Amino acid sequence: MCILHNRFPKLINTFGAVLFTLSNSTFAVTSDISQIGGIIIPKAFDNALRDGMTIPLFLHLDGVQGNQDDQRIGTVSILLANNMIKVHQITLEEKDNNASVNEQTRQELSALTQTPFDQNFVIQLNQNAKLYLNFQQLTLQLIVNQKALATQLLSRNDDIGKSSGESLSHTVSYNLGVYNNRMRNGENNTSSYLSMNNVTALREHHIAIDGTLYGIGTNRQQKEIYKAMYERDFAGYRLAGGMLDSWNMQSLGPITAIASGKTYGISWGNNANSTVFDSSHSTLPVIVFLPAAGEVHLYRDGKLLSVQNFDMGSHEVDTRGLPYGIYDISAEVIVNGQTVSKTIQRVNKVFAHSRGAGMPVGWQIWGGSMHMNTWSAENGKKMQAKTTPLLGLSASGGFKSLSWMATGYSYNALTVGETQFSWPIANYITLSMQNMVTTDRSWSSTSSLSLSLPRGFSSVWFSQDKAVIGNKLRRHGSDSQAIGASLNMNALWSLLGTVSGSYNDDRRNKSRYFTTDYTQSLYNGQYGSLGVRAGIQRYESGYYGSRIRTEKYIGLDFTLPLGGWLRTGLTNQNGYTLANLSAQKQFQDGVIRTFGANLSRAISDKSGDDKTLSGGAWTQYETRYSSGTLNINSGIDGYINTNLTASGSIGLLGKHIAASGNSEGNAGVIFRTDVGDGGKLTARVNGRTFQLSGKQSYIPLEPYNRYEVEINNNKDSLDSYDIVGGRKTALTLYPGNVILIQPSIKQMVTVFGRMRAEDGTLLTHTQINNHIGKTTTDSNGEFVIDIDKNYPDIDFFYSEDKSCEASLDIQEARGAVWVGDVICQGLKTYTSTLSTGSDHEG
Length: 842
What we know:
Radius of gyration: 36 Å
Mean pLDDT: 82
Distance between the termini: 62 Å
Structural class: mainly beta
Largest sheet: 24 strands, antiparallel, barrel
Number of helices: 3
Low-confidence stretches: 1-31, 151-156, 835-842
Helix content: under 10%
Strand content: over 45%
C-alpha cells in the first residue's frame, strides 16, 4: 500500500473547493464520485484516499472552545476502504513541554490498525479519550479529559556537557553588613561582617574558598575560613577534596549530628550538581512579630549573621543567607531603638541533593580527618578539642511522589544514622520528616505537616522538634512544638478579611508565644487601595520567673498608584502607646529603588522618658557595582541605630575584570561592547533581560546550567546599534567559569542632509555611498542614510575614475541628525549631464 505524504497538501488545495456537505448524511457511491458522511469526494481524491494519506494528529482538551490551544502530538495514516475511512497507523511525536497522554491511552492508540471511524467520524478509545476526524479540513483530534493526560516530568539527570570556559577564570561574591548603635550618653557600639565566596576555575575544575571577617575595624575582629576545597562535578560524577567546616558538611546529605569543627577529607559519588536540591530556606520557618516598623537581628554563638528590616506584623525571616544545619539562633526585634523581644528559634537547613522517581539512587562516599572544637554540654560537662577519623556514606532517591535522603557515618567511636523524606500525601497535604539516631542513645526527630484547603480558603501547618542527647554527641537537645494557620474568610464573604495565627512552645528554653494578625481590604479603586491590619502577641518566658509581655498594634494601609504606600496606626508596647506613620515609594530607574520613612510619637505618659518623638528612614539602592540597604532609626530614648548592607560580585578572565551589584551565582559573563557616551544595550539570557552600559558589563549567573545569550538594542536608548557579529551565543557554565562575549558592533546614526558640489550646485537624483550602504538624493539634493559612526564618510562617483567625498561630523549625534548642506570635496560643479553614479560600497 502506498501512503501519500508529498501529494497531500497539493490534493487539499486542488479538491478543497469542491468538497461540500449534503443535507442527507448517508453513505452512497456513484461511478464518478463517492459520498462519505454527506461529503462528496471527487474521483481523484477518492483514489488518493484509497492509496492512503498522512494527516496531523492534534491533542484537544474536552470542553475547550476552538482549536487554537491544540498541540500536535503525531501523525496518522488514514485510508478509504469499503466506503469507510479507517485508521491505518498512528505515530506519536510528543515534544518537550507539551502535554502527553497516559499509558492506557497510548497503548490504545498503538493498537488502532484498520479501525474504521463511525458515521460521525469518531473512534471511541475509552471513556476519557476519543478520536475525531474533521473530514472537511482533514485534521484529526484526540479529544481527552484530564484523566487521560499524564504528568509531564522534567528530566532529572540531564548532562549539561562540557564547560564553555576554556581559560582560567575567577569569581568573587561578597556580602557586607555594618550595624552601629549610638546611645544618648555617647556610648557607641559597632558590629559588622564581610562574607566572601571565591571560586577559581578551569573548565569543569574549580577551587572554592569561603570565609567571613567579623568585627571589621574593632578590637574584636575575627576571621573564619569555612570552606577550601577542590571540586570536579562532570558527566554525572562528583569528586571533591579539601577542608569543610561542620556547617558546610550539609552539602553531603542530612548530617546534623556532626561535631562543631573542621573536616579535611575527600568525597566521591554520582550525586552530581546537575540535580539541585533547593534548600535555601529553613524547613522550620523563623517567625518574628513586630508591633511597629523595626528591624530584626539574627545571632548565632554571639555573632551577628543578618540584619533585616520589616514593617509591623508577623514576618518570616529570610534564612537564605544563613549557614546550613540544625542549630539555634537568637532573633532580636528592635522597634524605635529598643529591643522589644528576643527569642531563641531553631533553624533547620539541610543542603542535599534529592532525586525523584525514575532516577538512579544518588550516592557519595566521604571521609577524612575531623578536628572537633571544645564543647560545653548542657549538664556542664566540658569536652576537649579532639581530632578523629571520619567515614560516611550518603544516598538519595525517590519513589513516586516520595523523595528521601539517608546518611550513615562514624567518628569518635560514635556511629550515626540519619534519614529525611518529603511526601505529598494528597493534593493538599505534605509531610516532611527528619530523624537521627546514634550508638550513644542520642536521637532526634523533626517533622512538619502542612495542609492547604482548596481555593486558598485556609492553610494549616504543624511542626515538632525533639532531640535527646547522650554522653558522646556534641550537640544540644531540643523540645518544641509549633502550630499555625491562615484563614481566608474572604472566600465566604469579601468583607470578612483574613485571620492568621501561630503558637510556639519551646520547652527547652522555657518560652512560649502566641501571635495573631487580622487583615481586611476596605477600598480598592483607581486612587489606590485601603486596608486595615491589627495584631497581638503574647510572649511568656520562664527562665527567671514567669514574665509575660503583651504587644498590640492596629493600622491602616493606603497603597498609592505608581509604587507607593502610606500607613498609619497605633502600637502598644512596654506599657505605653505610640502613634505611627510610615510611607514608602518605589522607583523603576536610578540608584535609589525604594525610599521610606517612619515617624512615631508617644501619646501616653508611661514611656518614662522626656522624649516622645522617634522616627527613621530607609532606602534600597542598586548601583552598577553594588546593591543593598541603608537604614537609620532614632528611638524615644535618644538611641540612634544605623545599619548598612551591600552585596555584589566580580568576574575576572585574563586581563578582563568587571563587577556587578548582583551576586546571583558564582559563574558569569563579561560583555565587552566598547559602547561609550552613555550608550545602552540589552542582553537576553534564557528569557531574562539585563541592561548593558558602558564599555564593559558583568552578569553573574548560576553554575551547572546551559544558557542562550542574545544581545539586542535597548528599547529605552536613543542610540541604534548594528550587531554584526556575536549577537547570539550558547554557553555551558560551571562554578567559577567566566566567559567573555565581545560582539562586533556598529553604532548607527540616521543622517539627513542636502548634498552640494563645491560651487553650491545641488547633487540631485544622484546615488551616494558610504561604508555600509547607499541612497539616492531627491530633486532638492536631499538624502537620508544610515551611517556607522566609526566611518562617517560619504562619496559620489561621477565617472569611471573620478569621485568626490564628504566627511560628516556626527560623533556627538545620537539616533538621528540633520547635518544641513554637505559639500562633496573634489567636485567643482554638478550638472544634469554628469553620470548618475555607479553602485559602490567603500
